[in-house]
Amino acid sequence: MSTTTRRNCTRALTSVGALLFASTALIVSAPTANAYAEQTPSVTSGPIIGPTAATSTATAPAPPPPPTFGERVLSIVSSRRGSPYVYGAAGPHRFDCSGLTMWTFARLHRGLPHSSSAQYGRTKHIRASDRRPGDLVFFHDGGGIYHVGIYAGHNQIWHAPYPGTNVRLERLWTSAVYYGRVR
User: Fold this and answer.
1) Are 69 and 134 contacting, i.e. CB atoms less than 8 angstroms apart?
2) What is the DSSP letter of 1?
3) Could you write out the DSSP letters of every residue in 34-65?
4) CB 158 within 8 A of CB 152
5) pLDDT tens track for 12-58
6) In whole angstroms, how far apart are CA 155 and each of 68, 141, 146, 149, 150?
7) Is the separation of the CB atoms in 101 and 110 below 8 Å?
8) Known catalytic residues?
């Protein structure tokens, strides 16, 4: 390589190095958008290269909202899936229909009597169009209430049906129902 070529290459590299140094100095000394970071003394000595927590624009995702009352009801009652129906039983491993609703709401500090018709008397009566998951569904035959379950949404209920069956999620099979909300 000739002396002239070597001299030109050296000058070019020196110029590139100077540009690179100047660019780095501009980036490091650029003001931050975070006023708190500007007021806080630095614990490092020398320039900080790369992103820092003070200048990061990424935000942590918001925590999920707490579960609604109805979601808590459904979580509790669904934990009893498969428990056998036993007349007069109120949990925690065996249930009749009103025993299941009584036990579920007791976990949420809501007292209900152990009778489907008495539970109907202790709820706020609501229209079918206003029902929400976690509301009670009362079955009637025109003469009185004979069964209760917990509305799960999408026209389904959790209930303890009758002797020989287990607690289960099932599609509503009749329109002869009333709805009640536990206060």
Assistant:
1) yes
2) -
3) -HHHHHSPPSS-S---S--TTT----PPPPPP
4) yes
5) 444 444 444 444 444 444 444 444 444 444 455 555 555 555 555 67
6) 19, 19, 19, 12, 11
7) no
8) 97, 147, 159
Instruction: Give me the residues paired with residue 159 across strands.
Output: 168
SS3 per-residue string spanning 105-164: HHCCCCCCCCCHHHHHHCCEEECHHHCCCCCEEEEECCCCEEEEEEEEECCEEEECCCCC
- 83, 94 contact by CB (below 8 A): yes
Q: Does domain 69-181 have CATH number 3.90.1720.10?
A: yes
Contact status, residue 92 vs residue 100, Cβ threshold 8 Å: no
Q: pLDDT digits over 77-86, tens only? A: 999 999 999 9
pTM, entire model: 0.68
| C-alpha span between 49 and 27 (Å, rounded) | 9
Residues 6+ apart with CB under 8 A from 112: 98, 101, 102, 105, 106, 118, 119, 122, 182
Domain residue spans in the chain?
1-59, 69-181
